[in-house]
Amino acid sequence: MEPFTLIMADGGCLWEARWDEQRLHVQRLDPSGCYLWSSATLYDAHWRARRQRWFAEWLATHAEPDAEAILHFHRHGGEPDSWNGFVMNRHDLVRTVSITQVVCAPPRLSMTYHDLLRQAVRNDELSLARNPMPCPEFSTDRP
User: Most C-beta atoms within 10 A of its C-beta, which of 54, 82, 102, 141?
Assistant: First the structure.
Protein backbone atom coordinates (compact mmCIF):
# COMPACT_ATOMS: atom_id res chain seq x y z
CA MET A 1 0.00 0.00 0.00
CA GLU A 2 1.27 3.50 -0.91
CA PRO A 3 2.24 5.93 1.86
CA PHE A 4 -0.55 8.20 3.08
CA THR A 5 -1.49 10.58 5.86
CA LEU A 6 -4.98 10.71 7.31
CA ILE A 7 -6.05 13.58 9.55
CA MET A 8 -8.87 12.74 11.96
CA ALA A 9 -10.85 15.27 13.98
CA ASP A 10 -13.61 14.39 16.42
CA GLY A 11 -14.99 15.85 19.62
CA GLY A 12 -12.34 18.56 19.86
CA CYS A 13 -9.55 16.02 19.32
CA LEU A 14 -7.11 15.81 16.42
CA TRP A 15 -4.94 12.90 15.24
CA GLU A 16 -2.50 12.22 12.46
CA ALA A 17 -2.37 8.66 11.15
CA ARG A 18 0.58 8.14 8.80
CA TRP A 19 1.38 4.97 6.86
CA ASP A 20 5.03 4.81 5.67
CA GLU A 21 4.70 1.54 3.67
CA GLN A 22 6.00 -0.43 6.65
CA ARG A 23 4.14 0.74 9.72
CA LEU A 24 1.21 2.84 10.88
CA HIS A 25 2.15 5.84 13.05
CA VAL A 26 -0.65 7.54 15.01
CA GLN A 27 -0.13 10.66 17.07
CA ARG A 28 -2.52 12.96 18.86
CA LEU A 29 -2.12 16.60 17.87
CA ASP A 30 -2.94 19.85 19.62
CA PRO A 31 -6.19 20.96 17.95
CA SER A 32 -5.19 24.61 18.38
CA GLY A 33 -1.89 24.06 16.55
CA CYS A 34 -0.96 24.92 12.97
CA TYR A 35 0.12 22.04 10.73
CA LEU A 36 1.26 21.46 7.17
CA TRP A 37 1.23 18.11 5.39
CA SER A 38 2.89 17.37 2.06
CA SER A 39 2.33 14.28 -0.05
CA ALA A 40 5.09 11.69 0.34
CA THR A 41 4.34 10.43 -3.17
CA LEU A 42 4.66 13.88 -4.79
CA TYR A 43 7.50 15.42 -2.76
CA ASP A 44 10.74 13.82 -1.60
CA ALA A 45 12.07 14.35 1.94
CA HIS A 46 14.10 17.41 0.86
CA TRP A 47 11.07 19.19 -0.57
CA ARG A 48 8.76 18.20 2.28
CA ALA A 49 11.29 19.74 4.71
CA ARG A 50 11.64 22.86 2.55
CA ARG A 51 7.86 23.31 2.44
CA GLN A 52 7.81 22.95 6.26
CA ARG A 53 10.41 25.74 6.47
CA TRP A 54 8.28 28.01 4.26
CA PHE A 55 5.34 27.33 6.57
CA ALA A 56 7.39 27.97 9.75
CA GLU A 57 8.73 31.25 8.32
CA TRP A 58 5.22 32.34 7.41
CA LEU A 59 3.88 31.39 10.87
CA ALA A 60 6.62 33.50 12.48
CA THR A 61 4.91 36.57 10.98
CA HIS A 62 1.32 35.25 11.25
CA ALA A 63 1.05 33.93 14.82
CA GLU A 64 -2.76 33.67 14.72
CA PRO A 65 -3.67 33.41 11.04
CA ASP A 66 -7.27 33.76 9.96
CA ALA A 67 -8.91 31.85 7.10
CA GLU A 68 -8.12 34.56 4.55
CA ALA A 69 -4.40 34.65 5.47
CA ILE A 70 -4.18 30.85 5.33
CA LEU A 71 -5.79 30.75 1.90
CA HIS A 72 -3.42 33.46 0.66
CA PHE A 73 -0.45 31.45 1.95
CA HIS A 74 -1.75 28.28 0.29
CA ARG A 75 -2.07 30.08 -3.06
CA HIS A 76 1.04 32.28 -2.94
CA GLY A 77 3.33 31.06 -0.11
CA GLY A 78 6.81 29.63 -0.37
CA GLU A 79 9.01 30.18 -3.39
CA PRO A 80 7.72 30.42 -6.95
CA ASP A 81 8.29 26.82 -8.06
CA SER A 82 5.78 25.22 -10.40
CA TRP A 83 7.18 21.76 -9.62
CA ASN A 84 7.24 21.87 -5.79
CA GLY A 85 5.25 24.94 -4.75
CA PHE A 86 1.98 24.86 -2.84
CA VAL A 87 0.14 25.39 -6.12
CA MET A 88 2.06 23.24 -8.54
CA ASN A 89 1.88 22.29 -12.20
CA ARG A 90 4.15 19.58 -13.56
CA HIS A 91 3.74 20.04 -17.31
CA ASP A 92 -0.07 19.79 -17.01
CA LEU A 93 0.29 16.11 -16.06
CA VAL A 94 0.09 16.53 -12.28
CA ARG A 95 -1.14 19.80 -10.87
CA THR A 96 -3.04 21.49 -8.10
CA VAL A 97 -6.59 21.76 -9.41
CA SER A 98 -8.33 23.05 -6.31
CA ILE A 99 -7.98 24.27 -2.74
CA THR A 100 -10.63 23.33 -0.20
CA GLN A 101 -10.81 25.27 3.04
CA VAL A 102 -12.95 24.22 6.01
CA VAL A 103 -13.58 26.65 8.88
CA CYS A 104 -15.16 25.33 12.06
CA ALA A 105 -16.91 28.12 13.95
CA PRO A 106 -19.66 26.53 16.06
CA PRO A 107 -22.49 26.15 15.51
CA ARG A 108 -21.47 26.03 11.83
CA LEU A 109 -18.84 24.37 9.70
CA SER A 110 -18.17 26.28 6.47
CA MET A 111 -16.45 24.82 3.42
CA THR A 112 -15.11 26.82 0.50
CA TYR A 113 -13.97 25.02 -2.65
CA HIS A 114 -11.67 27.02 -4.95
CA ASP A 115 -11.58 25.52 -8.45
CA LEU A 116 -8.24 26.79 -9.77
CA LEU A 117 -8.83 25.56 -13.33
CA ARG A 118 -12.22 27.24 -13.81
CA GLN A 119 -11.48 30.15 -11.45
CA ALA A 120 -14.72 29.36 -9.60
CA VAL A 121 -15.60 29.26 -5.91
CA ARG A 122 -18.30 27.21 -4.19
CA ASN A 123 -19.38 27.62 -0.56
CA ASP A 124 -21.35 25.24 1.64
CA GLU A 125 -22.26 25.08 5.33
CA LEU A 126 -23.21 22.41 7.86
CA SER A 127 -24.73 22.74 11.31
CA LEU A 128 -22.65 21.09 14.03
CA ALA A 129 -23.97 18.75 16.71
CA ARG A 130 -24.62 20.45 20.04
CA ASN A 131 -23.01 17.76 22.19
CA PRO A 132 -19.69 16.54 20.77
CA MET A 133 -18.59 13.04 21.68
CA PRO A 134 -15.59 12.56 24.01
CA CYS A 135 -12.22 11.91 22.41
CA PRO A 136 -11.59 8.26 21.58
CA GLU A 137 -8.11 6.80 21.94
CA PHE A 138 -6.28 4.95 19.17
CA SER A 139 -3.59 2.33 19.44
CA THR A 140 -1.38 0.72 16.82
CA ASP A 141 -0.49 -2.10 19.21
CA ARG A 142 -1.57 -5.50 17.98
CA PRO A 143 -2.56 -8.35 20.30
Answer: 54
Q: What is the pLDDT of residue 138?
A: 66
Residue-wise pLDDT tens digits, 92-104: 999 999 999 999 8
Q: Pick the closest to residue 54 from 24, 39, 76, 71 (CA basis).
A: 76
Residue type, 134: P
Q: Distance between CA atoms of 79 and 75, rounded to whole angstroms? A: 11
Q: What percent of the chain has pLDDT above 90?
A: 71
Closest CA to 75 of 67, 45, 105, 111: 67
10 Å CB burial of residue 72 (0-12, 13-18, 19+) is middle
Q: Residues for the chain: how many in total?
A: 143
Residue 142 clears pLDDT 60, i.e. is over it:
no
Domain positions in the chain are 1-33, 40-85, 97-128
